Amino acid sequence: MLIAAEEGILDLDEPAGPPGSTVRHVLAHASGLPLDGDVPIAGVGERRIYSNTGFELLADLVAERAEISFDGYLRAVLEPLEMSRTRLEGSPAWGASGPLRDLVAFAESLLRPSFIAAETLAEATAVAFPGLAGVLPGFGRQDPNDWGLGFELRDEKSPHWTGTRNSARTFGHFGRSGTFLWVDPEAGLACACLTDLEFGDWAREAWPRLSDAILAELSS
Known about the structure:
With 220 residues, the chain is of the alpha+beta class. A hairpin with a 7-residue loop joins strand 1 and strand 2 (96-97).
């Protein structure tokens, strides 16, 4: 989506989703759309509600504007990053799969911006629509529940899936498939993790411990 914005395929502040919502609202999970379904459950900019539907709508918008399937557009984005083994096998919101080395390549491209401008990444990892409360999936209500443009931001959230040693500037994402990726600009470190276990209590305990152990090793 960020590359599409840089290429002029879409504008972050153009309408998308429910009336009054923009691409920026959808990317920041602030459009009012629910996890799944196209009927809003809150007003635009009122709450942070994680929405797969929102990202599916944006994927359709990119495909329409670029006159190519979203899968085709995604492949064109991933190939320069040497992520040729990553495939979209379902919804654009959750259906990608690939090997750890591809995820590590993506992590490196975020730690040292290469596929988008540094200014674009800075905008995407700053808080969009500050002050919104909401539920961080798997970790409960957070107030505020800060997000950037597609990236979940650590800030001062507690509990959180990253470690207590992670800086407030850490950003990334995790999934129900037992995977995560975080980037900590202050530590100069990124961490990518794939597992064969769906997200659950084990992840809430293990992921922060793993993150803290990695950061402790780095500082020793």
